[in-house]
Amino acid sequence: MLSRVLALAALVLPSTAFITCSVLSYGAVADNSTDLGPALTKAWNSCVIPQATTVATDVLLYVPAGNYLLKTNVVFNGAKNWNLHIAGNIYLPYIPTLTGTMLTFQNCQNILLNGPGAIFGNGYRYRPGGDLGLHPSRPRLIRFQDCNNCEITAVTLYDAPQFHVTIIGNNNVAHNMAIIATNIGTTDGFDISGNNNYVHDVSVENGECLSSSLLSCVTVKTPTNGFVGENIRCKFTSGCNIGSFGSANTAVDVRNVRYNNVTISNSDAGVMIKAYPNNVGTVTNITYTGFTFVTMQPADINAFWMGDGVDTGKLSISDVSFSNFVGTGTPTRPAVLLNCNKATPCKNIKFSGISISGAKANSFTNACGSGVTGIPAC
Ligand SMILES: *[C@@H]1O[C@H](CO)[C@@H](O)[C@H](O)[C@H]1NC(C)=O
Ligand SMILES: *[C@@H]1O[C@H](CO)[C@@H](O)[C@H](O)[C@H]1NC(C)=O
Ligand SMILES: *[C@@H]1O[C@H](CO)[C@@H](O)[C@H](O)[C@H]1NC(C)=O
């Protein structure tokens, strides 16, 4: 009877059962000094790639508990259907010539990157005293480049020298994880572009701002069609932004974006659409709902965020709604600042349930909409 049950089980099992490819079998040593990079690559090539499965969690590229040093960039090009499972702590050394991205998944499909481990970027060593110019090409942590149906969760990222998580592609999810950085800035949390990506239940915390901080919390880049960000906490950041689009971008296309349930505290800004005056393209159907603010500027659409200020009027921003914005602003800046092109004004900018105390008077330039005092109707 038992043998018949086993025979039956063998028939219904998928061709690949659960396989663990531990980096310790491919040269890694949990001594916080041996480079983890080559072991990741070797375990991937020798153990992960030969497995055929369509279920990512069937094949683990496994970094067990322990301390590891990652000294070289690792690129998983063409990665499909597996799980980078980090249980240990991965540290970046300070190597002045280190650049690029430490972990890149490229042209990938159905990859899960999860914890419970952590990556410690030691970014402060690359920006001593806030000097961002010392190593302008300092390393970034994680990049999904041209990837679809991937997921990153439950891994904690500390203090990247430069950006933490960049996701480019479609139908990817980042959730239930934290990014904790020191106080320098220009180390964005999540930068996302592509279609139908989703970021939820995450927090991004910078150290206390000493200088003006440009650490974006959860930011949407162009091109994007379909993005949802919800249940997000941002502290000491520059908020949840769209853009910037780059100084000469003539193909801006961001649409169907929705942020919901976001708390932004002690930050430089709340939500911004950041454009340069010579950007060309479209930003439309953007919804921000359920924001709580503590001392910062809540809503800012700025066609002249940076650049020479010449109004070419070739970026169209329309159908942006802000609802249920509560909390405290800052006396030096308006709660709502709309600074749009004269040739192509911002259209249908709708507000409801805006209750921000302690801010400067709102300011509207070349924008029309409804729901706050002083905005002209369209
Ligand atoms: C591992 O090495 C890194 C880089 O040298 C260092 O910052 C970190 O404190 C070390 N971690 C442990 C647990 O010793
Ligand atoms: C809003 O987000 C916070 C996390 O920032 C979460 O704790 C809370 O449950 C969320 N609220 C709802 C209604 O989902
Ligand atoms: C606007 O975007 C939302 C998602 O945020 C989507 O459900 C809705 O269909 C879009 N509206 C239009 C007119 O495309």
From TrEMBL:
<dbReference type="InterPro" id="IPR000743">
    <property type="entry name" value="Glyco_hydro_28"/>
</dbReference>
<dbReference type="GO" id="GO:0005576">
    <property type="term" value="C:extracellular region"/>
</dbReference>
<dbReference type="InterPro" id="IPR012334">
    <property type="entry name" value="Pectin_lyas_fold"/>
</dbReference>
<dbReference type="GO" id="GO:0071555">
    <property type="term" value="P:cell wall organization"/>
</dbReference>
<dbReference type="GO" id="GO:0046576">
    <property type="term" value="F:rhamnogalacturonan alpha-L-rhamnopyranosyl-(1-&gt;4)-alpha-D-galactopyranosyluronide lyase activity"/>
</dbReference>
<protein>
    <submittedName>
        <fullName>Pectin lyase-like protein</fullName>
    </submittedName>
</protein>
<keyword id="KW-0961">Cell wall biogenesis/degradation</keyword>
<feature type="signal peptide">
    <location>
        <begin position="1"/>
        <end position="17"/>
    </location>
</feature>
<keyword id="KW-0456">Lyase</keyword>
<dbReference type="GO" id="GO:0005975">
    <property type="term" value="P:carbohydrate metabolic process"/>
</dbReference>
<keyword id="KW-1015">Disulfide bond</keyword>
<keyword id="KW-0325">Glycoprotein</keyword>
<keyword id="KW-0964">Secreted</keyword>
<dbReference type="InterPro" id="IPR011050">
    <property type="entry name" value="Pectin_lyase_fold/virulence"/>
</dbReference>
<dbReference type="GO" id="GO:0004650">
    <property type="term" value="F:polygalacturonase activity"/>
</dbReference>
<keyword id="KW-0732">Signal</keyword>
<dbReference type="Pfam" id="PF00295">
    <property type="entry name" value="Glyco_hydro_28"/>
</dbReference>
<comment type="similarity">
    <text>Belongs to the glycosyl hydrolase 28 family.</text>
</comment>
<keyword id="KW-0378">Hydrolase</keyword>
<keyword id="KW-0326">Glycosidase</keyword>
